[in-house]
Amino acid sequence: MRLSLILLLSLAYITGACQTKSDSKRDDSSYPIQKTDEEWKKILSDEQFYILRQQGTEYAFSGAYWDNKKKGTYYSAATGQPLFSSEHKYKSGTGWPSFYKPIDENAVKEIVDKSHGMVRTEVVDSGSGSHLGHVFNDGPAPTGLRYCMNSASLIFVADGEELPAIVEEWKDNHGE
């Protein structure tokens, strides 16, 4: 009984640590891709808009990629920008896809997040400033980091699969 209570409280803490919905609007004017809320709503699902543009989150163990074991690349659902490789994904036990590093150090930006009475580090894509999740200092070697991402903020493309139009557009516009 005591162990069950400890496990339940630990899961509640982990869930709260990865969840967020910021109460303040961030200035996204420094990012190369600029869209109005109406433009974002045309290309994103309601859930994606909530997570990517309003700093929301999905419930633990509910996203499409938390337990994905396929080899491939994870792209921003907002921009098609490459963000994470399956080579750097690991099972963190938190219920969200977790990576120990981004595909490229310039793929994401980290922002201090002081919402919900705690200080965390928010992770956004560097193309549009869209919210992806948070990064924590409790990950595995070699970095010791855990990039705790929302599945809805990502598009996964398995090795050998055709790239979706949004990814092709990113590649065309960025010489990749």
Describe the protein's architecture and organization.
- It is a single chain.
- With 176 residues, this protein is an alpha+beta fold.
- It has 4 helices and 9 strands; from the N terminus they run αααβββββββββα.
- The strands form 2 sheets. Strands 3-4-8-7-6-5 form a 6-stranded antiparallel beta sheet. A 3-stranded antiparallel beta sheet has the order 2-1-9, with no helix packed on it.
- It is globular and about 35 Å long.
- The termini are far apart.
- The relative contact order is 0.21.
What topology, given as strand order, has the largest sheet? 3-4-8-7-6-5
Number of helices: 4
Major sheet: size, sense and barrel closure?
Answer: 6 strands, antiparallel
Name the structural class. alpha+beta
How large, in whole angstroms, is the Cα Rg? 16 Å
Percent range for β-strand residues:
15-25%
Please report the distance between the alpha carbons of the first and last residues. Answer: 55 Å
Give helix and strand order, one letter per element, not per position.
Answer: HHHEEEEEEEEEH
Poorly predicted sequence stretches spanning 5 or more consecutive residues: 3-24
Shape: globular
Indicate the mean pLDDT: 88
Helix content: 10-25%
Total strands: the figure is 9
Record keyword descriptors for this entry.
176 residues, 9 strands, disordered N terminus, 4 helices, alpha+beta
